[in-house]
Write a structure and sequence with these properties.
292 residues, binds zinc ion, Hsp33 domain, single chain, alpha+beta
C-alpha cells in the first residue's frame, strides 16, 4: 500500500523520509499515457515532491517541483500537499528515447538535458518561496541532494527509483531522503556513508519484498535506531473543478463570450494535471455572461 513515513534516529541526529509510491506513479502513468522514460522522470518527481511536502507545516501549504530541461522530455511539473495529494504534468508525455548504450538503463540525463530545477513552496505568505538550481546531473535525486546543500544548507542523501516492466506498467516506485541535523557526530555520518555505499538499489530491494520501513531500519540507518514518527497515505488527486475553471471563463471579455454564444460554440478548458475536459455550452456561457 502506498504510504510515506517520516522519523528521526533515537539520538535525534538524523531525520528521514521514505515513500512507497508504486500505485500513485502507476496512476500518473495511466492518466497521462506516459512513455517509459517519462514514467521514470515523473515517478522520481512524485516521490521527491511528496517527501518534501510531508515536511510542510500546514495542510494548506503546497510544494511544486519543476524540471525545465532542453532534452526531448522537456518540462515536467509535480505539485504535492502535506495531506499526501499529488498531481503532475509532463509537457511531452509520450516521448521515448533509447536506453543508455552502456548501462542499458533509461537515459534520464539525456532525456532531461541541461536546464533548471525549481522548488516553489507556497506557505500561505504573500509570495511563495522559490529556490532554483542549474541541473548538474539531471538524475533528479543527485540534483536534489545538491539543492538541499546549496539552498537549504542541509547535508542530505536522496534516493529515488522507478522500476518499469517491459509492458510499461510500474512494478515499484519509491524514494528516501536522509538529512543530517546540525552537530551530528562524525562517526554517525561515517556509519550512514558506509550503509549507503553497501545499499544496492531501492526499487530492486522493494521488489525483493523489503518494505520502506525495512529499507530504513535494516539497511540505510542500520545501527542508528531510527524511529518512525508518522505514517501517512498518499494518492494522485487533482484539485480542479468546474467551478474553478468557470472563474477562468470569467477572465474572457464580454465580447468573446457573446461571440461564443452567437456561433453556438462550446468552450472547452482542459486540466493538464488530470487530463479532464470541462465543457461550457451556450446555455452555461449565457448564464456566466449574465452574472458579469
Ligand atoms: Zn485536474
Amino acid at each position: 500500500m502506498d504510504r510515506i513515513i517520516r522519523g528521526i534516529t533515537k539520538d535525534k541526529s538524523i531525520r528521514f523520509f521514505a515513500i512507497d509510491a508504486t500505485e500513485t506513479v502507476q496512476e500518473a502513468v495511466t492518466i497521462h499515457h506516459l512513455s517509459m522514460t517519462n514514467s521514470v522522470i515523473m515517478g522520481r518527481m512524485i516521490s521527491a515532491t511528496l517527501m518534501m511536502a510531508a515536511d510542510l507545516k500546514s495542510d494548506k501549504n503546497v510544494i511544486t517541483l519543476k524540471i525545465d530541461g532542453d532534452g526531448p522530455t522537456g518540462v515536467a511539473i509535480v505539485t504535492a500537499r502535506k495531506n499526501g495529494n499529488v498531481k503532475g504534468y509532463a509537457k511531452y508525455p509520450e516521448v521515448e528515447i533509447p536506453l543508455n548504450e552502456h548501462t542499458k538503463t533509461f537515459d534520464i540525463q539525456n532525456a532531461i538535458g541541461n536546464g533548471t530545477l525549481t522548488i516553489i513552496k507556497d506557505l500561505g505568505m504573500k509570495s511563495p518561496y522559490i529556490g532554483q538550481i542549474e541541473l548538474k546531473y539531471s538524475t533528479i535525486a543527485k540534483d536534489l541532494t545538491f539543492y538541499f546543500a546549496k539552498s537549504e544548507q542541509i547535508p542530505s542523501s536522496v534516493g529515488l527509483g522507478v522500476l518499469v516492466m517491459p509492458d510499461g506498467t510500474i512494478k515499484q516506485a519509491g524514494g528516501f531522503i536522509i538529512q543530517v541535523l546540525p552537530e551530528t557526530k562524525e562517526d554517525v555520518i561515517t556509519k550512514i556513508e558506509n550503509n549507503l555505499s553497501k545499499f544496492p538499489n531501492l526499487t530492486d530491494m522493494m521488489d525483493m519484498g523489503h518494505s520502506i520501513e525495512d529499507v530504513i531500519s535494516k539497511f540505510i540507518l542500520k545501527g542508528l535506531e531510527p524511529e518512525v514518527k508518522e505514517t501517512a497515505p498518499i494518492k494522485y488527486k487533482c484539485d480542479c473543478s468546474k467551478e474553478k475553471f468557470e472563474n477562468g471563463i470569467k477572465l474572457l471579455s464580454k465580447k468573446e463570450l457573446q461571440e461564443a454564444i452567437d456561433t453556438n460554440e462550446t468552450l472547452t478548458i482542459h486540466c493538464h494535471f488530470c487530463n479532464t475536459d470541462y465543457n461550457f455550452n451556450k446555455k452555461k456561457i449565457e448564464k456566466i455572461l449574465g452574472q458579469m
